[in-house]
User: What shape does this take?
Amino acid sequence: MGRNRGKVTESGRTTTSTPTPDCGIPPFQAALSGHGVGELHPTGIDILQVNTGYRCNLRCTHCHVDARPDRAEVMSRETMRQCVEVLKSNPVRTLDITGGAPEMNPDFRWFIDEARSARADLEILVRSNLTLLVGHAAYSDIPAFLKERRVHIIASLPCFTREQVDRQRGSGVFDRSVEALKMLNGIGYGIVGSPLSLNLVYNPPGPELPECQHQLEDEYRKQLSGQFGITFTKLFTLTNMPISRFLLSLLESGDYCSYMELLAGKFNPAAAGSLMCLDTISVRWDGRLYDCDFNQMLDLPLDPSAGRHIGEFDRERLLGRRIAVGQHCYGCTAGSGSSCQGSLV
Ligand code: SF4
Ligand code: SF4
Assistant: This one.
């Protein structure tokens, strides 16, 4: 699975103005135009992805959020209330709750209860790093809480080996993740025939593209089942985005241009037709809206004609916007493509 060349830096915050070398790579928009795709415009707003804050108990080398325990950005109940109002009055299919570690938001349970009460038909997903779900008294109720409210779990597990996971995420994380996965299987998540899905997320350890999602899923099944008796629903492979903590590690190691050349060289026009920004709106902890979680991290603003805050959510205006793109977008179109729901083609 390759060698980890990432290194955690003190501050992993980057924006669109963070200086990067000129690698001679054409602007992403030119790559789109060269394949007859043109400007990106939404096809719908099916997913509301809500980032409830950047605080996390871990500090992974590849984190595109620069999440860590001391981050102060946490979504308020008032902003969550505005998200629920949007869910009540718009045909959004999925609420995708992410972070940081969303469980650490003090209003995490309140938000899910409100969303479920507002919409019985809503698909609710929570992205968890697994490690808070076992051995922490403050969070021990969460698995049963999620099960009762029919919330699906997307869990990051960047490898099936202890060595690799602990290198990327910190010492002891693999064993805690395995314990959590066994516990989730035990209450019905990720087992054959269960309506409660437990999807795992893989990302490469360094500046390389993920392997084929289907083949890697087979290998994950074989390894996790064989070693630990763990089952899961699907594996999502994600490409490391050249932003935030991973961008800084690329700059530090001198791998930035070679990684961007890899991404641009593997540009796949078929992936451009399924990009997650085409049907997703991302909400920042303070209610600001973005085209995707990655644009949120770069503070790449939404088309001003669309309104920029959850409190001024207007479906028609949002559908008419132009999606803001940049060089980081090559991460979504390389190879089999990449999104928060895994590969695209
Ligand atoms: S668990 Fe997720 S949010 Fe937390 S540091 Fe790791 S990658 Fe970032
Ligand atoms: S980074 Fe965001 S805006 Fe760019 S292609 Fe990916 S999903 Fe779309």
